[in-house]
Each structure stands twice: as C-alpha cells, then as structure tokens.
Design brief:
The chain has about 160 residues and is an alpha+beta fold. It folds into 2 domains: about 45 residues, no CATH class; about 110 residues, no CATH class. It is built from 8 helices and 3 strands, in the order E-E-E-H-H-H-H-H-H-H-H. It has a 3-stranded mixed sheet with strand order 1-3-2, with no helix packed on it. It is globular, with a radius of gyration of 17 Å. The model has no long low-confidence stretch (mean pLDDT about 85).
C-alpha cells in the first residue's frame, strides 16, 4: 500500500476521475517523483462501495478501508493482506457473515503487521490459506480472544 498523487482528477474533462474514487480497486501506473509517487494511467477494476446493495454492506466496506488506513503507513508490500481485502469485499459468502469476517480480517491484518503474536487459541485462523478457510474454522470460542487482542492492538497503535 502506498499513497500517490494525481492532478486535476476532479475536473469533468479528466479521464481518471471515475477510476480514482474512494474504495475503488484499480490497476495503476506509478512514477516515482521527487516528492513521492504520481499516478500515470488508471484502469478501474470495480468499486465494492458502489456495488453494495445495502447500508450494512457499505458499512462493511468502510470498516475494511478504515482499518487499512489506520494501521498501514508508508510503503508496504502485503500480498496476503491484499488477497484478504479482495475476498472480504467481493465474496458474497463472506459479506453474509460480516461481523465475524471483519474480526478475522482485522486479526490477520494485525498479525501480518506485527501487532499480534500468534497464540494457540487462534493460530488456525492466522495460518489458514485464505480468509474463507479461516471463516470455516472460526468458532464462538475465538470471539472473546480476538476482541481482547484487537482492542489491545488498537491501544498500541496510538490511533
């Protein structure tokens, strides 16, 4: 994840304006400049927020993006987190179990970033291949443990 700038994308004549909306999945060409990254060309791949059919689904998309912005700073390559984000935001099965899915997503994100140590109680959720597999391994016993861990990580992050 990284931050990049683009000029005049809000203008009506801009070809990039529709692709560069909040919550969008995009394919982008980047150029490293003196002051940071600049956006060259953009191809829109979808926008889960605009595709959401209910208020709860839009809140779910907002939660995921808010957590990414809260915990990821600087330039990081996190392919497993990107796969989790895509799955969480696009899979109807995962969207149906929104609250559980959000808890597992946050736990996996915090583990990848080093905020959470692996514990026996939820190591199966962290080590699973993808978030859908982790969801199938989830039990109600995990709920309290995950909540404690995410709250303490939130205090550590100072955000």
């Amino acid at each position: 994840m990284l931050w990049a700038t683009a000029r005049s994308v809000r203008e009506e004549k801009s070809k990039q304006r529709h692709a560069l909306q909040d919550f969008s999945f995009v394919r982008v060409s980047l150029v490293k400049g003196k002051t940071g990254w600049r956006i060259g060309s953009v191809e829109a791949l979808g926008n889960p927020f605009l595709q959401a059919s209910s208020r709860q689904e839009r809140a779910h998309v907002n939660f995921v993006v808010t957590q990414l912005r809260r915990y990821i700073h600087g330039e990081h390559t996190l392919p497993e987190t990107y796969e989790d984000v895509q799955a969480v935001l696009t899979s109807p099965v995962l969207i149906a179990r929104q609250q559980v899915c959000e808890s597992i997503f946050l736990l996996r994100l915090l583990y990848v970033l080093g905020y959470v140590a692996k514990k026996e109680t939820f190591s199966s959720l962290i080590e699973s291949e993808d978030i859908a597999t982790a969801l199938s391994l989830y039990t109600e016993a995990h709920a309290g443990e995950i909540e404690k861990v995410t709250l303490s990580a939130g205090e550590i992050s100072h955000l």
